[in-house]
Design goal:
Order of helices and strands: HHEHHEEH
CATH class: Mainly Alpha
CATH topology: Arc Repressor Mutant, subunit A
Strand content: 5-15%
Oligomer: single chain
Distance between the termini: 31 Å
Structural class: alpha+beta
CATH architecture: Orthogonal Bundle
Radius of gyration: 17 Å
Length: 110
């Protein structure tokens, strides 16, 4: 993969692009959906609910954690993951702000 040019974009736009890119995989969306519907879980629980190997689930969790979408707490040999509310709120604000700027009924000549 090539290097994505980020010069000239605000840090907020660059961060949101990384977050949305991380969400662009079905396994990661399924993980987020599972975490949204349960306050926290252990990695093993996810493996039982997804058609993926433990190592693959761990890799996807790592990507979600890297962009801040999830947080993990280590207790002994177990890691409990949950949604990072601060980042989730940023996503909601981004889409709410963007959708508020769309004028219904406005057509283009595309």
């Amino acid at each position: 993969m090539g290097i994505t040019k980020v010069d000239g974009f605000t840090p907020e736009v660059t961060q949101m692009a990384e977050i949305l890119k991380a969400l662009g995989h079905p396994a990661r969306l399924a993980i987020m959906e599972y975490l949204i519907n349960s306050p926290d879980c252990i990695n093993g629980d996810l493996v039982d609910h997804l058609p993926l190997a433990q190592s693959t689930v761990s890799r996807h969790l790592s990507e979600l954690k890297k962009v801040g979408l999830i947080k993990g707490t280590i207790t002994g040999n177990c890691i409990s993951y949950c949604i990072n509310d601060d980042v989730w709120d940023k996503i909601k604000v981004f889409f709410n702000t963007s959708s508020d700027q769309i004028t219904p009924g406005k057509s283009c000549a595309c």
